[in-house]
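User: I'm putting together a teaching handout on how multi-component assemblies are represented. Below are the sequence lines for each component of a complex, exactly as they appear in our records. Could you produce the 3D structure of the whole assembly as structure tokens, so the students can see both representations side by side? Please keep the chain order the same as the input.
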Amino acid sequence: MADAATAVAATEMTVEMIKASQIGMKALGAGLAVGLTGIATGIAEMAVGSAAVGATAENKDVFGLVLLLTVIPETIVIFGLVVSLLLLF
Amino acid sequence: MAEVKGGPDPYIYVCTRMRVRKSKLIPREEYLRMLNMGLSEITRFVEETQYKKEIDELATAFHGIDLIENALSWNLAKEYQNIQKITPGTLKELTRAYLRRWDIQNILTVIRGKLHGERPGKIKEVLIPAGELNKAFLDRLIEEPTPERIIESLKGKAEYPLLSKLFEGGVREDLLPKAENELYKEFYADLIAMARSGIKGGRQFLDYLTLDIDITNIRNMFRFRADQSSEAFMDVAIQGGSISPQVMQRILQIRDLNEFIDALVPLVRARPLRELLETLREEKSIREIEIDLIKVQLAEMETMSKLQPFSIHPILAYLEMKKYEIFNLRALARGKESNLPPDRIRGYLVI
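Assistant: Of course. Below is the structure of the complete assembly, with chains in the same order as your input.
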């Protein structure tokens, strides 16, 4: 019964509808790629940032170095952004 | 990593700070250089390190050895107070509990000073207000006219019930060693109870306590062996280590050193400690044994702090290393003041 209903629905879908659905799925994938990598970057930067602030509090000379280390997890979200751009364009 | 409510970032922050501070401690090579310096050169060298502020502050009031000693004590107290301020959550509670040992030391110093009729200024010089009892409270204690009044002033503090019971019939010099033993036993019992109460990070703290108690008990065993007596060992033995006091008392009856080590080694949990005990088969002075035990304890604490990088271990490792840096500098300064040869002074250094 269910199979028959699906078959009927599939036959009723137009090419435009399928294309629109694909664009929607792409947008969803792109959103997930940026969103999830953003969360991962945040978690990674939490640890690196805490250590960086701790180290800078004791020795101000290391500020430049720890700043660089703190932004290294940003690469994760940049990968996510690249993937999402590839998906979209 | 210890479980933390609200994320581990405060732990990471404070443990990193401790690690940076540890890297600023005076390295072994500098101690070796200082062995060949005079007292004024040592003072100048110390002034160039983290002790500058204290030496500058106290330079008008003290000179020579007194200046170094006071600056070191003052720096240690300030450092410990500062660490208590920056540690978060349960780490603060554990650090405070650990630092209570300085309260015991300070209280006993004040009572001893009063019994010997020392003037308040002299007693104040040797106190290190690194624990819960701050400088103002200790100043009030010093101003008390009698030891009995000192104990009364401690009402409400953790040490009061035991001291008031022990000194019920008045404070006497001969009761002080017993009071000291009992206070430290109670201190360790309280710490163990706290570590086992389910507090976050308690398991790691218990690991440290076991090591500390083992080292203390083994050191006391060697001391008792050197004194050729074993009657009072149970008075000083601390419960909670990996060897029970009863077993240690039994092992202490063995007079032959090799057999003594053979009996002791299988009971010790920490591998570096077992290895050290194996090297103690040849006769060494009690001072050498004590220094070796301290070195093993510090090395083991360093290992623990690497295995548990965001726990109480990095903090405790730093606190202990800082304490021994102060001891080393004091030994160096005292040794130079007494014109001891460098080799002799080196024997007192934990490097």
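A couple of points students might notice: The mean pLDDT of chain A is 89. The radius of gyration of chain A is 22 Å.
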